[in-house]
């Protein structure tokens, strides 16, 4: 087999074999030792963790008992005091020091109170004069205690009252509180203590006044006329749990049998609010905590046993312990990441591993020292050739040898490696450059560096077919270009033209030629000029690259080598230039299409004016102000070049969805207007009724009726009809508000009848015929009401127009049942304006369409946030906006900027036929109110005022009559209040 052609026998060198065997045994021994040690230490750590978890559980139970015990003692003491029999506020205040002592000695007690059998109530709590209640009561700063009293005066009437005391129980104020209505007999603690001869404690709940989490300890008096209550807060329990963490990331939870979380170590623990706005204890599912959910699932079946829990955050080791109190079950869950519990075992394993690695690293050089001496510099050069093959150029070749041929080979390979490295790096550098001028500068700087040239120039072919200088680099810096054009027909002898025609040229230029053709180079001696044509992917010459070496003279071979090197670089440079041009042309095309779309939207309806073209200007002015801010909320705000492009495109396309908005809805000027104003139909019906009345009048005269009376009655009816039509015409125009009596009059007028003798189902569109078929046609002639809401007026909403609650865009909007409702009475009784609910939704739907359209576009990665920016300008900071109901923290800063720009432009726009342009002061005052109601970002509005963006925009786009004096300081003070 050894003689077979192409077959190479596998061979091993002795020192390689010995070293490999030794290192393999060393690695195997270390691996077995480390694995065994880690397994044993892991078991020991987990066993210790179980013991630690049980101890922590006992300490938590003891802590809870310690919190309740003082309250039990206080309740039992007060239930036997004279406070029970006190029947007036003054008598009850005598025992105030006793109640204050309970609060002073026990920080966990938040309130002490007594509920009486007749509905009276007497409570003492600590008081913060700076709280909301303190400000409402006008409390002095020394107020330390608050008495809430529900007593009866001398006449037997209830006298609800708040009394403030200082820290030394000096009365500060006593205020009646008529709205304070509280009956202790309805509270669970009162009802639970009644009939009991012992101290009872309630399950933890939310306190009525303070909304703190805690429990009530209560004791009924011996005579059964009152119940003493002591509120114990569990707020300190969470802090205590935090101190009991067995590891830094450990979690401790306390929850009851209902799944309500009473305390935990998580700083994000928050009370929940039900559908009625009432705070409640959070349940396990409310916290969305995978670990807690996993632990609670096994709470009742695996008490006091540790087990492992798999969560998205990793594997946790945990235990659940429980106890019962007053017929309720409570659980303490303690868990810690296994990675922290096993940190010591892991550290021991890592130390062993590093020691093994250190021994291995120490053994490797010892093993290989002698073998490397045998291999010599040739082996090093073989490795270097492999590094070049793998495109690794991190370090130069430093191999040297006392043999002349090997040494020269090493130096030659080092130069070759450096040249290849620089050639490859030029490609990556040029491919990553995005600015055209910087690209040209990098091409010249890299080319002159790799060719040891003094400088160079780039000429590109302009639209006239001439070579135009675009960039010069000389003596290590960019040079100003003198616009010297080269005509391809007249300047045939110039190296640039020769290279353009022949592909390359190397020629010596005199000082006179340099001054005539390249005056910006300031050369004082002849130079060698090497020029190479730049060709695009189709092989067309797009320009010429020229470089001038430092040497005054070069051999033909050296010049040919240099020229070949420049030619190799020119290919990469030409592709980079062409790519940048194509990218720029595509961006210009995209920008033109975007501006064309925005312009078309603005031109589509006079109701939008130049809105789409002005909002980008205002948005970018505000973004520039934020980027220039050196302090405040936006001192760290900055946009990259790509983010500026993203903001620019999003601003121009922020209303692109309006292309789908029907123009007759946007421009709807009257209530009955669709594509035309249906008031003309109503007018014709009035005319028909008048004609019918006239015919009936003359018919009655012909039959013998009194002529004068009949004509008088006809004139009276005509006058009534004329007035009723005038009323409907006024109602059709719309206004600020249509009163209920006017609405009722419309309905009354609608009851008048007229006679139709022609079929209204012929000659109509398929859709209209389909709608009319919803009810059976009446035989002709038919008497019809003057106005009606007919089934045919209802245009059903197709499935494609419906938005599911779980839609992929996150829209949270109320979609009207019908697409349109063109009922005549329905439209004429619109209370405000001229739009129905369906039409208002159709106009607002442009935001939904904007987001849909932009998300369907295959946007580049750096423009992926454009839909979010463009689609958020109708959102409000309080989450009541449109269409996603986003809150301030859920929106990006550019999206919030565009909301301000959109509002300010709409307020100040002077090209809208439906409104008068507002002045600068009026617009800013309106926006300040919107800021105060949490509709717009207060920080951005303050920047909008402080930076003068509003003024710069106004000077360019507002009429002089709109630009009035504005004092922004009051607006800013409200913003910072």
From TrEMBL:
Record has S-adenosyl-L-methionine as a keyword: no
Domain HAMP per the UniProt entry, residue ranges: 372-425
PANTHER family linked: CYCLIC DI-GMP PHOSPHODIESTERASE PA4108 (PTHR43155:SF2), CYCLIC DI-GMP PHOSPHODIESTERASE PA4108-RELATED (PTHR43155)
GO biological process, one term: signal transduction
Entry protein name: Phosphodiesterase
GO cellular component: membrane
One Gene Ontology term of the molecular function aspect: phosphoric diester hydrolase activity
UniProt keyword annotations, A-Z: Membrane, Transmembrane, Transmembrane helix
Bilayer-crossing regions: 14-35
InterPro entries: GAF, GAF-like_dom_sf, HAMP_dom, HD/PDEase_dom, HD_GYP_dom, Sensor-like_sf
Residue span(s) of domain HD-GYP: 751-960
Top-rank taxon, per record: Bacteria
């Amino acid at each position: 087999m050894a003689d077979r052609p192409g077959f190479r026998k596998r061979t091993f060198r002795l020192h390689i074999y010995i070293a490999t065997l030794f290192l393999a045994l060393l690695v195997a021994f270390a691996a077995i030792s480390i694995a065994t040690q880690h397994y044993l230490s892991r078991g020991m750590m987990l066993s210790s963790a179980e013991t630690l978890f049980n101890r922590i559980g006992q300490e938590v139970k003891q802590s809870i008992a310690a919190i309740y015990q003082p309250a039990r003692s206080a309740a039992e003491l007060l239930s036997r005091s004279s406070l029970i029999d006190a029947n007036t506020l003054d008598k009850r205040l005598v025992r105030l020091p006793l109640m204050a002592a309970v609060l002073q000695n026990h920080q966990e007690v938040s309130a002490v109170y007594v509920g009486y059998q007749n509905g009276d109530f007497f409570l003492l709590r600590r008081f913060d004069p700076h709280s909301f209640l303190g400000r409402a009561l006008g409390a002095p700063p020394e107020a330390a205690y608050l008495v809430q009293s529900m007593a009866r005066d001398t006449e037997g009437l209830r006298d609800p009252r708040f009394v403030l005391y200082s820290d030394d129980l000096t009365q500060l104020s006593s205020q009646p509180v008529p709205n304070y209505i509280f009956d202790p007999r309805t509270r669970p603690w009162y009802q639970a203590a009644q009939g009991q001869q012992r101290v009872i404690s309630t399950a933890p709940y939310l306190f009525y006044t303070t909304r703190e989490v805690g429990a009530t300890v209560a004791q009924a008096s011996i005579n059964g006329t009152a119940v003493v209550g002591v509120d114990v807060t569990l707020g300190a329990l969470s802090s205590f749990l935090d101190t009991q963490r067995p590891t830094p990331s450990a979690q401790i939870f306390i929850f009851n049998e209902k799944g309500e979380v009473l305390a935990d170590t998580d700083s994000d623990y928050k009370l929940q609010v039900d559908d009625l706005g009432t705070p409640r204890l959070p349940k396990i599912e409310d916290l969305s905590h995978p670990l807690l959910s996993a632990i609670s699932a096994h709470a009742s079946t695996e008490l006091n046993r540790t087990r492992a829990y798999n969560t998205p955050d990793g594997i946790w080791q945990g235990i659940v312990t429980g106890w019962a109190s007053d017929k309720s079950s409570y659980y303490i869950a303690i868990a810690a990441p296994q990675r922290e519990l096993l940190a010591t075992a892991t550290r021991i394993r890592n130390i062993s591993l590093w020691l093994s690695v250190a021994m291995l690293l120490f053994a490797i050089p010892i093993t290989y020292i002698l073998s490397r001496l045998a291999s010599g510099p040739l082996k090093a050069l073989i490795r270097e050739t492999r590094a070049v093959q793998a495109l690794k150029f991190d370090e130069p070749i430093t191999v040297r040898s006392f043999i002349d041929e090997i040494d020269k080979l090493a130096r030659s390979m080092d130069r070759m490696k450096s040249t290849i490295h620089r050639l490859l790096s030029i490609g990556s550098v040029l491919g990553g450059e995005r600015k055209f001028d910087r690209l040209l500068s990098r091409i010249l700087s890299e080319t002159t560096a790799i060719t040891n040239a003094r400088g160079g120039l780039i000429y590109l072919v302009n639209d006239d077919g001439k070579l135009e200088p675009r960039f010069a680099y000389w003596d290590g810096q960019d040079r100003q270009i003198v616009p010297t054009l080269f005509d391809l027909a007249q300047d045939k002898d110039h190296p640039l033209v020769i290279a353009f025609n022949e592909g390359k040229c190397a020629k010596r230029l005199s000082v006179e030629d340099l001054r005539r053709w390249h005056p910006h180079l300031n050369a004082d001696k002849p130079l060698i000029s090497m020029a190479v044509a730049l060709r695009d992917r189709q092989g067309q010459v797009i320009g010429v690259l020229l470089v001038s070496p430092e040497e005054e003279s070069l051999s033909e071979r050296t010049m040919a080598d240099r020229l070949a090197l420049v030619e190799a670089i020119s290919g990469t440079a030409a592709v980079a230039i062409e790519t940048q041009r194509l990218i720029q042309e595509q961006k210009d095309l995209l920008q033109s299409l975007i501006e064309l779309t925005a312009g078309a939207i603005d031109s589509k309806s006079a109701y939008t004016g130049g809105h789409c073209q002005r909002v980008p200007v205002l948005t970018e002015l505000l973004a520039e102000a934020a980027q220039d801010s050196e302090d405040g909320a936006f001192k760290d705000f900055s946009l990259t070049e790509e983010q500026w492009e993203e903001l620019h495109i999003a601003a121009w396309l922020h209303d692109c969805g309006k292309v789908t908005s029907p123009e007759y809805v946007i421009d709807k000027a009257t209530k009955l207007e669709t594509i035309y104003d249906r008031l003309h139909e109503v007018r014709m019906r009035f005319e028909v009724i008048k004609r019918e009345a006239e015919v009936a009048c003359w018919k009655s005269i012909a039959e013998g009726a009194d002529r004068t009376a009949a004509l008088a009655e006809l004139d009276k009816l005509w006058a009534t009809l004329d007035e009723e039509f005038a009323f409907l015409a006024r109602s059709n125009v719309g206004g600020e508000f249509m009163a209920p009596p006017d609405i009722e009059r419309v309905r009354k007028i609608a009851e008048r009848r007229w006679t139709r003798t022609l079929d209204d189902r012929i000659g109509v569109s398929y859709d209209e015929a389909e709608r009319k078929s919803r009810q059976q046609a009446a035989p002709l002639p038919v008497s019809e009401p003057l106005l009606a809401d007919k089934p045919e007026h209802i245009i059903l909403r197709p499935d494609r127009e419906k938005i599911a609650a779980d839609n992929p865009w996150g829209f949270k909007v109320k979609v009207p049942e019908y697409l349109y409702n063109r009922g005549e009475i329905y439209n004429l009784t619109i209370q405000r304006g001229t739009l129905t609910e369906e039409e208002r939704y159709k106009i607002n739907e442009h935001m939904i369409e904007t987001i849909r359209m932009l998300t369907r576009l295959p946007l580049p990665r750096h423009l992926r946030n454009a839909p979010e920016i463009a689609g958020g300008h109708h959102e409000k900071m309080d989450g009541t906006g449109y269409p996603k109901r986003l809150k301030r923290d859920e929106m990006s800063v550019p999206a919030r900027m565009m909301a301000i720009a959109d509002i300010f432009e709409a307020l100040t726009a002077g090209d809208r036929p439906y409104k008068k342009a507002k002045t600068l002061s009026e617009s800013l005052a309106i926006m300040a109110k919107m800021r105060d109601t949490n509709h717009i970002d207060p920080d951005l509005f303050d920047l909008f005022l402080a930076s003068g963006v509003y003024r710069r925009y106004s000077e360019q786009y507002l009429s002089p009559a709109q630009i009035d004096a504005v004092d922004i300081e009051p607006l800013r003070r409200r913003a910072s209040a």
